Automatic annotation (TrEMBL):
Gene Ontology terms describing biological process: formation of cytoplasmic translation initiation complex
PANTHER family named among the record's database cross-references: EUKARYOTIC TRANSLATION INITIATION FACTOR (PTHR23001), EUKARYOTIC TRANSLATION INITIATION FACTOR 5 (PTHR23001:SF7)
Keyword Nucleotide-binding in annotation: yes
Annotated coiled-coil segments of the chain: none
UniProt family annotation: Belongs to the eIF-2-beta/eIF-5 family.
Composition bias type Acidic residues, residue spans: 184-195, 247-257
Protein name (record): W2 domain-containing protein
Ranges where the W2 domain occurs: 253-411
GO molecular function ontology, one term from the record: GTP binding
Keyword Chaperone: no
Length: 411
């Protein structure tokens, strides 16, 4: 399946710092004549980002197009009969999002879809976790019949309290959190543990220290013509997956004029330019009043680093040391790495051990923080599958840490 780009869930929002994102819907025409059909190979990924069952979206397309929509959930195959243009289906997807995902009050996609019985009547509501409003679904739409016959599953009960699920009464619900919707869980608590990480570490760490030699702890940046050209070449069109989490008390991550959005845009626009190094970036953070905020670290990682991150960590080690001053900052740093490697530069996933080693050798990451991160899957910064993938790739570094500890104890 070809790789899908990442787009805002609300495609009317142009801000690339908008935190709610999903894969771009892909289509594939198969067959011919009366047997022609449109297959949607990444329907499950799109549906997962919206936290709605893929069958709902597929049936919605059928309702709007007057077409049959056979699907096989077991084999992850979703079809709309007939030949349909990808652009048209993406427009219809926008309609589905507007009618069945976005809160009618605040237009936030962070909603639960609930079916509530009212005597003999059943109603469908969107419960918004952002503004608290409960808004009605248009019960006249043809998809409503399918939803009532196939109600959404109850959301999982969180460790923070079983009362949240109980508040739904006899309602079924599913929560729209998307792959980049943060703030649902704290790192290392509330996320599902990937037991396989603690059971087996397969890869070896003998060559982890290669290409991770420390740079001098100064505030300089390589501004040679070759270095600048190399960085600029990797910058073009690479910031599609940038988004911001909640947590600090000033500025909204959905606001293009927030200090975090301004900081991220400035770093993205000026990185690699002559004379722009650690000092200039830190001064910009000071100017915007975010130099001590952990959210600024998350933005910095996504805006500053490229596929050459291992070398860039050594270049900007003084900046990282200056801005990362607590465990919370380190967790934001790791969250930024998850997004950078898991969403923006997926080719970096095999290099996760080297990235962690470079951060560790530069005294930016503490051993206990990275160990806890490596053994606990969290949906705070990326979706669960991406979180697992990134942590799985970190196994060689975790093994190296364990062996280093064992060696110290034996001595």
């Amino acid at each position: 399946m070809p790789a899908a780009g990442i787009v805002n869930i609300r495609r009317d929002v142009d801000d690339k710092f908008y935190r709610y994102r999903m894969p771009l819907l892909l289509t594939k025409i198969e067959g011919k004549g009366n047997g022609i059909k449109t297959v949607i190979p990444n329907m499950s990924d799109v549906a997962r980002a919206l936290s709605r069952p893929p069958s709902y979206i597929t049936k919605f397309f059928g309702c709007e197009l007057g077409a049959q929509t056979p699907f096989d959930e077991k084999n992850d195959r979703y079809i709309v009969n007939g030949a349909h243009d990808a652009i048209r289906l993406r427009e219809l997807l926008d309609g589905f999002i507007d009618k069945f995902v976005l809160c009618a009050s605040c237009k936030n996609p962070e909603t639960d879809l609930n079916v509530v019985k009212n005597g003999r009547r059943e109603d469908i509501f969107r419960d918004c976790k952002a503004c608290g409003e409960r808004t009605n679904i248009d019960m006249r739409h043809k998809l409503v019949t399918f939803i009532l016959k196939n109600p959404p599953k109850n959301p999982k009960k969180s460790k923070k309290g079983k009362g949240e699920a109980a508040n739904n009464g006899n309602a079924g619900g599913v929560h729209a959190s998307g792959p980049t919707i943060p703030g649902q869980e704290e790192d290392g608590s509330g996320g599902d543990t990937d037991d396989e990480l603690t059971r087996k570490i397969k890869a070896e760490a003998a060559d982890l220290t290669n290409d991770t030699v420390l740079g001098d702890d100064d505030w300089a940046v390589d501004t040679s013509t070759e270095a600048v050209k190399a960085r600029i070449k990797t910058l073009e069109g690479q910031m599609g997956g940038l988004s911001l989490p909640g947590g600090d008390d000033d500025g909204s991550e959905d606001d293009a004029d927030s200090p975090y959005s301004q900081f991220g845009r400035w770093v993205e626009e000026h990185r690699g330019q002559d004379g722009i190094g650690s000092v200039q970036i830190y001064r910009k953070a000071e100017e915007l009043g975010v130099e001590k905020k952990h959210k600024a670290v998350l933005v910095l990682v996504q805006a500053l680093f490229t596929e050459d991150i291992v070398e860039e960590i050594n270049t900007y080690n003084a900046l990282l040391a200056k801005m990362i001053t607590s465990e919370k900052h380190q967790k934001a740093l790791l969250g930024g790495i998850e997004r950078l490697a898991g969403l923006t530069y997926t080719k970096l996933i095999p290099a996760i051990p080297k990235i962690l080693m470079a951060l560790y050798q530069n005294d930016v990451l503490d051993e206990e923080v990275v160990k806890q991160w490596g053994t606990h899957v969290s949906k705070k910064y990326v979706d669960k599958e991406t979180s697992k993938k990134v942590r799985k790739a970190s196994e060689p570094f975790l093994k190296w840490l364990e062996e280093a500890d064992d060696g110290s104890e034996e001595e």
